[in-house]
Amino acid sequence: MLELRNVHILACLTATWLAASGCSSSGHSGEKYYLIAANVKLPYWQNAADGLNRAASDLKLEAEMVGPDTYDANAEKEEFARVVARKPAGILISVANPAVLSSDINSAIAAGIPVITLDSDAPDSQRLMFIGTNNYQAGLTGGRLLAKQLNGKGSVVVYTIPGQANLEERLRGYQDAVAGSQISFVEKVDVHGNATLAFDKTAEMIDAGKLKPDAFVCLVSTACKEVADVLTRKNVTGKTIIAMDTEAGTLEWIEKGTIVATIAQKPYTMGYYGLHALDDLHHHAPSPLAGNWSQNLRSPVPANIDTGATLVDKSNLAQVRDTKK
Fold it and tell me: pTM above 0.85?
């Protein structure tokens, strides 16, 4: 709760500073900001939209979340092009695939549009900053729990989307956390952002009987509640499941004891603080905007802002549920 309070104070200080520098409600005339994401119907992104809308209300400006309803990096690229054509005041984007979107981000920056990556980064682009979870540290947190649960020995199946930068960082954290142990990652399941695929692939795995993993690790929010459902239906017990994020179904399986824990991110904070930062950059842009500021030792903007993550298990489940109301 202290961390949440500090984020709130920081956001308030930002708003106060903007007001003091003449960025009043009248200074936002004709401005519109966008948050672009893939899978925008997911509860995770609806939570981010709540933060975005609250910040828009506080700052008295216009903001909108847009993007495809399913995971589709090319559809997100097309949405980015549509938004750029509208000449927005700034863009927040969760990058589904850096290889697909980095050049588009650079083009937007060259056109004078501030771009901040949110949740998932494009670190080789000229984006001005990244706001979101330190995904490597989140992976380390999950990996240490995994090592403890398996007593340093066992096989693990991972559910992910290859090529998505934040998920690759989480996996690297998991792998480093168990390095030197007898824990091995024997299968990576590409769920393509589709919960049904997680269910089907798990069922196939159990039915085939060839692969009998000791643990299941989900790097995406939608997968582990499906894994828990399959194992319960098939009366498979004694397995460790570590999830990601706080979808209602995930928290229910933690309460039942089937999922041991999940790593909770703060999409609301990302949307809320992200819009504050983007509005600041629109009104006080570094010059030149395409200055490769992430590598400049005298940069006026930070390269990364960590919004934090929390390990959620039965011990703090009730408290986390209270904060989601």
Answer: yes
